[in-house]
Backbone:
C-alpha cells in the first residue's frame, strides 16, 4: 500500500505475514431513541437527585427506547447512517457483527435481525458479547477479515436497549445507563493505515462485579427468578470503578507503545462513557490534556457497546477528528473486559 513518505508512527500490523492491505473506518453513524429521561425525571422514580448523579457521574440525561423499539431497530438505523456516509449499499456488505448485551432475544442473533432490516442479503451475521468493550472487540475481529482479504466490507454495530435490563427501583444502577446505537463500515482505504492496533483483555475472575444472573442456562426464567429480580443488571460500583481506571490506563498505554507514540500525538481520545470521574482519572494517568478527551455522557449515560461508537460519530461530525489524525479508543466493561485501539483516521 502507499503510505505517507515519513511515517510518524509504527504500524504494528506491518509485522504480520499476511499484511497486504489495511483496514479503515470509511463511514460511522449513530442513532438514539427520541425519548429523553432527565435526572429530574429520575428524582420522581427513586431516592436520588440531579446533584448526586451529576457530581458522581457527569450524566444529566439519557435516551430511552420506546416499548416497540428494540436493539435491532436502533442498530439498523445507526447502520444505515454509517453506510450512507461510507457510500456503501446493502448488497456490498459481506459481514455484520453486532456487539450487544441486550439482544432482541437469545436467538436468532440481533445481527441477523439487523441484516433483515437493512436488506444486506449477501452478508454473514453474528453477535459478539463483550459488554461495554464490544465495539473494540468487534473492530478487531472485522479488521482480521479485511486484512486477510476474506471480506471487503464489514459492518460493525454496537447497539443496546439497556432500559430493558435495568432495575428501575435500584438507584445504584438505574441512573447510569441509556439506550442507543453506533455503527462503522470497515473497508480497505488505499493510502491510509486505518486501524493500527487493538489491545483486548479480559478477567473472568471478576465476572461477579457486573452481571445479570437470570435468563441464561444457569438460571432460566421462572416465577422465582422474576420475583427475585434476577433479570436485571447488578453491579458492585466502587470495585468496578477501580478496575475500570486501571484496565483502561494499561490498555491505552500498551496500544500507544505498540505504535511507538506518546499521548501527545493523539488528536482525540474517545473513552467508554460510563462515568466522568473514570474518564478524568484515566486521562490524568495517561498524561492527556482535557481538550484531548471526547465526552458526551452527559447526554446519553452509559450505552455499553454503543458508547464509543456514538461518541466517535459525534466527534467526526463536530469536526474534532479530521482525516489523518491519530485517535485512541479505550473501553472497559463487564466480564471483566477492556480494550484500546489506535486509529489513523
Ligand atoms: N442517588 C443518590 N445516592 C446514591 C445513588 C443515587 N442514584 N446511588 C448510590 N447512592 C448512594 C449509595 O447508596 C451510597 O450511600 P451510603 O454511603 O449511605 O451507602 C453513596 O451514594 C455512595 O455510593 P458509592 O457506591 O460509594 O458511590 P460512588 O462514588 O462509587 O459512585 C458509581 C457510584 C457512580 C456507580 C460509580 O461507582 C461507578 O461509576 N462505577 C463504575 C461503573 C462502570 O464503569 N461500569 C462499567 C461498565 S458498565 C457495563 O459493562 C454494562
Residues:
Amino acid at each position: 500500500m502507499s503510505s505517507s513518505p515519513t511515517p510518524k508512527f509504527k504500524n504494528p500490523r506491518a509485522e504480520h505475514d499476511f499484511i497486504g492491505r489495511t483496514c479503515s473506518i470509511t463511514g460511522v453513524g449513530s442513532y438514539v431513541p427520541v425519548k429523553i429521561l432527565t435526572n429530574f425525571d429520575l428524582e420522581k422514580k427513586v431516592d436520588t437527585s440531579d446533584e448526586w448523579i451529576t457530581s458522581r457521574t457527569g450524566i444529566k440525561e439519557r435516551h430511552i427506547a420506546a416499548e416497540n423499539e428494540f436493539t435491532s431497530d436502533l442498530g439498523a438505523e445507526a447502520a444505515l447512517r454509517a453506510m450512507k456516509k461510507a457510500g456503501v449499499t446493502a448488497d456490498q456488505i459481506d459481514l455484520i457483527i453486532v456487539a450487544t448485551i441486550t439482544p432482541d432475544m437469545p436467538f436468532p442473533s440481533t445481527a441477523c435481525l439487523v441484516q433483515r432490516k437493512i436488506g444486506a442479503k449477501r452478508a454473514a451475521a453474528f453477535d459478539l458479547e463483550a459488554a461495554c468493550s464490544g465495539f473494540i472487540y468487534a473492530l478487531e475481529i472485522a479488521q482480521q477479515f479485511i486484512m486477510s482479504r476474506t471480506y471487503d466490507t464489514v459492518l460493525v454495530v454496537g447497539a443496546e436497549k439497556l432500559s430493558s435490563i435495568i432495575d428501575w427501583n435500584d438507584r445504584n444502577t438505574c441512573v447510569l445507563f441509556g439506550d442507543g446505537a453506533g455503527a462503522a463500515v470497515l473497508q480497505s482505504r488505499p493510502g491510509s493505515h486505518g486501524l493500527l492496533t487493538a489491545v483486548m483483555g479480559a478477567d473472568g475472575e471478576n465476572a461477579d462485579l457486573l452481571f445479570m444472573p437470570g435468563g441464561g442456562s444457569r438460571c432460566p426464567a421462572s416465577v422465582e427468578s422474576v420475583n427475585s429480580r434476577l433479570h436485571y443488571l447488578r453491579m458492585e460500583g466502587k470495585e468496578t470503578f477501580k478496575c475500570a481506571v486501571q484496565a483502561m490506563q494499561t490498555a491505552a498505554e500498551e496500544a500507544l507503545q505498540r505504535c511507538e507514540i506518546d499521548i501527545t500525538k493523539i488528536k482525540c481520545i474517545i473513552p467508554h462513557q460510563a462515568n466522568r470521574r473514570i474518564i478524568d482519572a484515566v486521562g490524568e494517568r495517561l498524561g492527556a490534556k482535557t481538550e484531548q478527551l471526547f465526552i458526551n455522557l452527559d447526554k446519553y449515560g452509559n450505552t455499553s457497546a454503543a458508547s464509543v461508537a456514538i461518541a466517535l460519530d459525534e466527534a467526526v461530525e463536530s469536526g474534532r477528528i479530521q482525516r489523518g489524525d491519530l485517535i485512541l479508543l479505550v473501553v472497559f466493561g463487564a466480564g471483566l473486559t477492556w480494550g484500546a485501539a489506535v486509529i489513523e483516521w
Remarks:
- The CA atoms of residues 60 and 144 lie 38 Å apart.
- The pocket of acetyl coenzyme *A is lined by residues 48, 52-53, 56-57, 131-132, 171-172, 175, 210, 237-238, 240-241, 244, 274-275, 278, 302, 304, 332-334 (CB under 6 Å).
